[in-house]
Specification:
Blueprint (H helix, E strand, L loop, with lengths): L1 E2 L1 H4 L13 E3 L11 E8 L4 E9 L8 E7 L12 E10 L3 E8 L10 E7 L9 E6 L4 E4 L2 E2 L11 E9 L10 E12 L1
Antiparallel strand pairs: 1-13, 2-5, 3-4, 4-13, 5-12, 6-9, 6-13, 7-8, 7-12, 8-10, 10-11
């Protein structure tokens, strides 16, 4: 039940940034923003995976985010009865906190009212092992600019138009982070 890089356009046949179907979504959409994220395809004779490189330069209060997103494959609606997303990932660098972001089709664009997010923590790469992270759909919550949106409708996979990964400074969290890091994305699947 995994969807491929081609399905989510994380890495099409041409790995250049202009042609991979992926778009940066970072705090530079706001005037004080100074963070950055780039998605790159890593290919070898043994494997192919996506790698998100990120730099968080937060405001003094921890406000800051950097990520990438892409169109959700049309086939995702057929998984609406699934329990959640399973990501097979590995983190490196100073950034330990990441999240998956899902956006309804009618919320895409600069005037969106909310995204559905679920955070996860990865320790830095000490044993060089990838980690399987299960993200139940029931644990995704609606957020806008880091604050939970209580009156948003419940997540409905059929309505999702975009899928992405982000890292963040932690403005409303009990922890703060800054610096650079990478998220190696080996696989994303439904379970």
């Amino acid at each position: 039940d995994a969807f491929t890089y081609e399905d989510v356009k994380l890495a099409g046949s041409n790995p250049s940034a202009e042609d991979d179907g992926c778009e940066e979504v970072s705090d530079t959409v706001r005037e004080p923003g100074m963070s950055k994220a780039v998605l790159s395809l890593q290919r070898s004779q043994l494997f192919q995976r996506a790698v998100m490189f990120a730099m968080i330069n937060p405001q003094p209060n921890g406000a800051g985010f950097a990520g990438v997103h892409t169109a959700m494959p049309d086939s995702a609606a057929s998984y609406a009865e699934s329990t959640g997303l399973r990501v097979h990932v590995r983190g490196q660098g100073q950034l330990k906190f990441w999240k998956v972001v899902l956006t309804d089709r009618d919320q895409m664009g600069p005037m969106r009212k909310y995204d559905y997010e679920q955070k996860f923590e990865l320790q830095t790469m000490s044993e060089r092992q990838f980690k399987i992270v299960d993200l139940p759909f029931s644990d995704f919550k609606a957020f806008k600019w880091g604050k939970e949106v209580d009156d948003a409708p419940p997540l409905d996979l059929v309505k999702i138009g975009a899928f992405g990964f982000q890292t963040f400074g932690g403005v409303y969290d009990d922890y703060k982070q800054q610096g650079t890091g990478s998220l190696e994305i080996d696989n994303v699947s439904f379970y």
